[in-house]
Write a structure and sequence with these properties.
With 93 residues, the protein is an alpha+beta fold. Helix content is 32%, strand content 29%. It has a single domain, classed as RelE-like (YaeB-like fold). The radius of gyration is 13 Å and the shape is globular.
Length: 93
């Protein structure tokens, strides 16, 4: 199980997204839990990004909801999931 680290940008995006789509809050939280258990689970559809977002990854949390994240090592050498952004396809890409 990997720990999840939220950036300030992700926190702002999460608050904004949930304010606009309150019904999706539970769905996003469920996807974050699944990411913690297995970030490469086929149901998440995690994939590497290119272009301006090269080095980051994204996964789907519904029809038009994406989470942008990266895998990094913490101070103790454990792999953690760093959440960078959340929103619709057009907002995050």
């Amino acid at each position: 199980m990997r720990a999840i680290v939220e950036t300030p940008q992700f926190r702002r995006a999460f608050r904004r997204f949930v304010r606009r789509n309150p019904a999706l809050r539970q769905r996003v939280e469920l996807v974050l839990q699944r990411m913690s258990e297995d970030v490469f689970a086929p149901t998440l559809g995690a994939h590497k990004l290119s272009g301006a977002l090269f080095g980051l990854m994204a996964c789907s949390c519904g029809y038009d909801c994406r989470i942008v994240f990266s895998l990094q090592l913490d101070a103790e050498g454990r792999e953690v999931i760093v959440l960078h952004n959340l929103g619709t396809h057009d907002e995050v890409y």
